[in-house]
Amino acid sequence: MSRPLRIIFLGTSTFALPILEALSRSDHAIQAVVTRPPKPAGRGKKLTQPPVADLAASLALTLLQPPKLTQEFIGEIRSLSPDLMMSADYGAWLPEALLEAAPLGVMNIHPSLLPKHRGAAPIPRAILAGETVTGITFMLTDEGWDTGPIIAQFEEPIDPTDTAGTLEERLVALAAENLLTVIDDYASGLLVPTAQEGPSDYAEKLSTEETWLDWNLPAEQLQRTVRAFNPAPGARTLCKGKLLKIMEVGFCHREIEPGAILVSNGILSVGCGRGALRILTLQPEGKRIMTAEEFLRGTPMETGERLGNE
3-class DSSP state for residue 114? Predict the structure, then answer.
């Protein structure tokens, strides 16, 4: 192991939590945790702290929440004399002056095998694309979006039933498991960053329009859509004119017209452009997630009724 380092951690979402926890259990000194300011959330628009802020408070770590990464703030970071900065889903572009604030730079953890799926939504994009493997990349941040040199990569298979949620859990666990070894080997010179090579693409942020299910598409594609948007924002359709989020589906070996439903003994199936899907769990507008059987008890439906805009 290299000597203990002075580290500043940047992160915001739940993805960063296991990584910060692993770092807090190490011999390295976390000088400060940088996260985004609280935002209005929920129906009451109450100011809510990001998950990393809550964890930093519970660990009694110094918390910094600058609205912008100004020169004044970067000067504050420099005054701490960090050896290394680490980021995991911080959610904002880092200016060049901040990238140069630590001799070892900013090590970012990205949930894809770069250069594939650079950008904001690599996990759902990998599922939507029907890929069978993804992974975690430890990289040095540069002025581009996930374009910096690679320090280390670790592969993770994508199960045919994985949702964005289950896959994220495994990926962040993989990152946390390898975190300290990568830091030590990078700091000691055993891991030398290398330029990204091969085909690249950009994982655009998910749009609301993408969440609407088009029942004329093949069942295989719609199943991937449901998995990619679970747990959030949820794949959407209309049922009796109201929003219905489809959370979990399986394949149904029945011939059903696209968008039409088949109800049989508490089982709810819907036809697609090719094949059909059995709806396992769903979330009616304004209600909790429930099984299809529970839904049918509260919302009687008949075979031949339709889901969607028709």
Answer: coil
